[in-house]
Amino acid sequence: MQKLTNKEEEIMHILWKLEKAFVKDVLAEMEDEKPHYNTLSTIIRNLEEKGYVSYTAYGKTHQYFPIISKEAYKKRFMNTAIENYFNSSYKNVVSFFAKEEKISVDDLKEIIALIENKK
User: Fold this and answer.
1) pLDDT score of 26 more than 90
2) For residue 119, pLDDT beyond 70
3) Rounded to whole angstroms, how far apart are CA atoms 10 and 52?
């Protein structure tokens, strides 16, 4: 899986949400700084070349759909982030969020219970 740009990732989130969409549908869903229609079309074609989306042709119009699931992308993204920023240590990830006060004691207890129940 090739790395996505921020704009490509934004578009993938829209396609995962819509499941199938024409370029105009994706454009309508975009909130910040909407690109020109042709620019968006090019970005979506790049996603196709990278193997993230495919399409069904209706004459000259294409309806795009994701071929990589959000879960598969999330798994790859998280594994890469943990590897690159936390030395492949999940302990370091949890410690980071604890130090940043982004995770509570109750959240940690829930995580421990999840881990213990998987055994």
Assistant:
1) yes
2) no
3) 13
**What does the H/E/C string look like for the chain?**
CCCCCHHHHHHHHHHHHHCCECHHHHHHHCCCCCCCHHHHHHHHHHHHHCCCEEEEEECCEEEEEECCCHHHHHHHHHHHHHHHHCCCCHHHHHHHHHHCCCCCHHHHHHHHHHHHHCC
Structure tokens at 85: 């920023």
List Cα–Cα distances, 59 to 56, 62, 63, 109, in angstroms. Answer: 10, 8, 11, 55
First to last CA, the chain: 32
Compute the average pLDDT of residues 26-45.
94
